[in-house]
Design goal:
The complex is a heterodimer of chains A (about 350) and B (about 250).
Chain A: H1 2-6, H2 9-33, H3 39-65, H4 72-90, H5 97-123, H6 130-148, E1 150-154, E2 157-161, E3 175-179, E4 184-185, H7 193-211, H8 214-224, H9 226-231, H10 236-259, E5 264-265, H11 269-272, H12 274-287, H13 292-308, H14 316-332, H15 334-354
Antiparallel strand pairs in A: 1-2, 1-3, 4-5
Helix pairs in contact in A: 2-7, 3-7, 3-10, 3-12, 3-13, 4-5, 4-6, 4-10, 5-10, 8-10, 12-13
Chain B: E1 4-13, E2 16-26, E3 31-35, H1 42-49, E4 57-62, E5 65-66, H2 72-78, E6 80-82, H3 95-102, H4 111-115, H5 119-138, H6 154-167, E7 172-176, H7 184-201, E8 204-208, H8 212-218, E9 221-226, E10 229-235, H9 236-241, H10 243-250
Parallel strand pairs in B: 3-8, 3-9, 6-7, 7-8
Antiparallel strand pairs in B: 1-2, 1-4, 4-5, 9-10
Helix pairs in contact in B: 3-5, 3-6, 5-6
Classes of the chains: A mainly alpha (about 350), B alpha/beta (about 250).
């Protein structure tokens, strides 16, 4: 405890976040191994890891950089498809799952990051909400491209088409890798809950350390006052791009986890469309804009809640909505904030008395 | 050679000639005042000096180096820092972090060194912390180092903005109406602060001000701006007694 006090607030806050994820992981593992978790809920664990990473990475754009992105699912989609493409091609060449998965992660993150830079370069130079509009379009475009893209491979090399699988003109030994609307089938299922949690830690490590560094301060200064930041010599475009591309790359990582958990990866509105982007934004807003730990908590609650409430049948979505509103009030209403602060102060005083 | 030399500076917004044939010469270490009635173009001059606006014509030399055509951040790196008429702090950052943003270009380490917490990160952050606290203690803000900037009282917010500007290690400090909204006591304190900055940091200061008590109290030289043109310039006492200046301020 003495050491805890010596540490500054920032380090302690970060440690609490890491610890929270670790404890949740242990609890889930114990529940799973003791057979107390339904198979449906078990199936949700890996996507949950992806959603947490998405929420944390979007919070970097929305809460720390202060720009609105409505196409985060698009970056996830890029990461998912590039990495699944890679893994499917390499499944025989690189038989060790760990190495293949690691490379897939790097490729997925890099592809999404590059897309982030390409979108960001023109848009982040502008003042105003243009990023929201452009990312919204980007998400839809990526999803639709994935639905018309056909890629096959045979002894002569790769074949591309945007019409149908027959137009690829594959030789007899060829196989279709991306089959348009049917997506990628047979990606090795390398994602596990443990790997997902490790990647959550990596994401938290990157985001939290970035925020609490020279670059993070520069990013937050742009959010707080762009004109003042410029006047003290902060390179606005550079730091906006940095934050946005890191955010996009981490969304790509989430895509990799997501893709390697599915036997059949398809770009549907439900998983990579506008709704998904809004869902991630809801995690961020409900968890508290700029509050990384809040994003993690909100993603967990809102992903697991519909499953946990399944027993309530028809009332499920009703309760879900009520929880939504309750969380919103708890996080944002001035009275609730005042109450929380009072309670926290009381707790602190209580602890001091004990000592 | 003068530290700042401005000649024939002019800018138009549409049909409005906001600044016309403006000239200014500030020697090193001088406390220089830029005054004039509302709408005379004072803040526009500041925005021209810091590269927020591009002038239509004219020359700006800082230590003999051309400033025209440079971006705001390059001008800051060259040595001009400013504060704003309506305070612009980084409200959701702590007082210390506000100053540390000001130190951004003097204590460098890369984003990767920051993410992976390499030794340089710790070394630089420590140096930044020390420098920031040193600056804050000059302005009696060191006790509030961990407060959010938006929670500071108004007078201290002004001081913090000046501290942040000084953290960029400028040659020339521009203060845009530092006494705006202050009561006489706070203004008195501010005058002392400005003198302290000049003496302690060996700073050259150009300030815009409406408060004549402050202007006559601390400014050594003045330029009076009216309708975008220089109406009078020279020693403060001479300028303030100039009948033309009195006419521009009070009317006939």
């Amino acid at each position: 405890m003495k050491n805890m006090k010596k540490m500054n607030k920032m380090t302690r806050d970060n440690l609490i976040t890491y610890l929270m994820v670790f404890v949740l992981f242990l609890v889930m593992q114990i529940l799973v191994s003791s057979g107390n978790v339904s198979s449906l809920l078990q199936g949700l664990l890996v996507p949950l890891c992806a959603y947490i990473i998405l929420a944390v990475s979007l919070n970097l754009t929305v809460g720390i950089l202060g720009e609105l992105s409505l196409g985060h699912a698009g970056f996830m989609c890029v990461g998912a498809f590039t990495s699944a493409f890679f893994s499917k091609c390499m499944v025989n060449t690189i038989p060790i799952a760990g190495v293949r998965y690691f490379l897939a992660l790097l490729i997925g993150a890099a592809a999404a990051g590059i897309c982030g830079i390409l979108v960001g370069i023109p848009v982040l130079r502008l003042k105003g909400d243009y990023l929201a509009i452009v990312t919204l379009a980007f998400g839809e475009i990526i999803k639709n491209i994935m639905n018309i893209l056909f890629i096959g491979r045979d002894s002569a090399g790769f074949h591309f088409s945007t019409t149908d699988a027959r137009a690829l003109g594959l030789l007899e030994d060829g196989e279709i890798i991306i089959n348009g609307p049917q997506g990628i089938t047979g990606t090795p299922k390398d994602s596990t809950f443990a790997v997902g949690v490790i990647l959550i830690f990596v994401t938290l490590f990157i985001v939290l350390n970035l925020i609490h560094s020279r670059s993070g301060r520069a990013i937050m200064s742009i959010r707080d006052n762009r004109i003042a930041a410029e006047s003290v010599g902060i390179n606005i475009t550079k730091y906006k791009l940095m934050a946005f591309s890191v955010s996009a790359a981490l969304a790509g990582v989430a895509g990799v986890i997501y893709a390697h958990n599915l036997a059949n990866l398809m770009a549907q509105p439900k998983n990579f469309g506008y709704n998904m982007s809004i869902m991630i934004l809801v995690f961020v807003v409900l968890g508290g804009i700029g509050n990384i730990r809040g994003s993690v908590i909100a993603a967990i609650i809102l992903t697991l809640l519909p499953e946990l409430l399944r027993g309530l049948n028809d009332y499920r979505m009703l309760i879900y909505a009520v929880v939504f509103i309750a969380m919103m009030l708890f996080n944002w209403s001035p009275k609730a904030i005042a109450w929380r602060e009072k309670y926290a102060a009381k707790l602190k005083r209580g602890k001091k008395k004990e000592v | 050679m003068a530290l700042l030399e401005v000649n024939n500076l002019g800018i138009s917004f549409g049909g409005l000639r906001a600044v016309n044939e403006f000239h200014l010469k500030i020697e090193k270490g001088c406390l220089y005042g830029l005054i004039g009635p509302n709408g005379a173009g004072k803040t526009t001059v500041f925005n021209l000096l810091t590269g927020v606006y591009k002038p239509d014509e004219g020359v700006i030399l800082l230590d003999g180096e051309k400033m025209i055509g440079k971006k705001t951040i390059e001008i800051n790196k060259a040595g001009i820092a400013r504060t704003f008429q309506n305070i612009r702090l980084f409200n959701d950052l702590s007082v210390k972090d506000n100053v540390k943003v000001g130190l951004h270009n003097h204590f460098k380490y890369s984003a990767l060194e920051g993410i992976f917490r390499l030794p340089k990160y710790f070394k630089m952050e420590k140096a930044m912390d020390e420098r920031a606290m040193e600056l804050l203690s000059v302005f009696d803000l060191d006790k509030e180092a961990d407060t959010l900037a938006s929670n500071l009282p108004y007078g201290k917010q002004r001081k913090l903005e000046i501290t942040r500007a000084l953290a960029t290690e400028p040659k020339l400090l521009l203060l845009d109406e530092p006494a705006a909204g202050m009561n006489p006591n706070e203004t008195q304190e501010l005058m002392e602060t400005i003198r302290l900055i000049r003496d302690k940091f060996d700073m050259t200061i150009l300030l815009i001000e409406h408060d004549m008590k402050l202007v006559s109290g601390i400014c050594e030289e003045l330029t009076v701006l009216n309708f975008g043109e220089v109406l009078a310039e020279g020693k403060a006492s001479d300028v303030l007694n100039n009948p033309e200046v009195i006419k521009a301020y009070i009317g006939e």
